[in-house]
Amino acid sequence: xxxxxxxxxxxxxxxxxxxxxxxxxxxxxxxxxxxxxxxxxxxxxxxxxxxxxxxxxxxxxxxxxxxxxxxxxxxxxxxxxxxxxxxxxxxxxxxxxxxxxxxxxxxxxxxxxxxxxxxxxxxxxxxxxxxxxxxxxxxxxxxxxxxxxxxxxxxxxxxxxxxxxx
Length: 166
Hints:
The protein is an alpha+beta fold. It is built from five helices and eight strands, in the order ββαααβββαβαββ.
């Protein structure tokens, strides 16, 4: 159990066309998303194309995230099937969201997912999200955090830190 003494739901329906599906151990499906320079730069702050993550890196990331929180695929309904377009980890410190597929960025999916993170944590009795980290060049993520009520709590180098009282 990623969150102590709490059972992780298999599915969380956010809308008829958007859902979160519990991570099933298939870390290979994350690789293409994290090899996209946009995703890698905004999740890890690395701009060097020669340092793209490999399968071992992605496995370690998924192992860590599923250990410290509730790791989910972000899935969008296309035709009659749900397809993974990103990932999110529900946790109280720095809950990461990555949208792997370019056409799904900037259309409100990140905001819908962060609202689901907030609601899940609130329902579980948590009172605060801390250390939500956004790179200074990631203006869309900064705007999302601020639109959802997060407050800036600090900066360090290339990073801005946010917190939210639940």
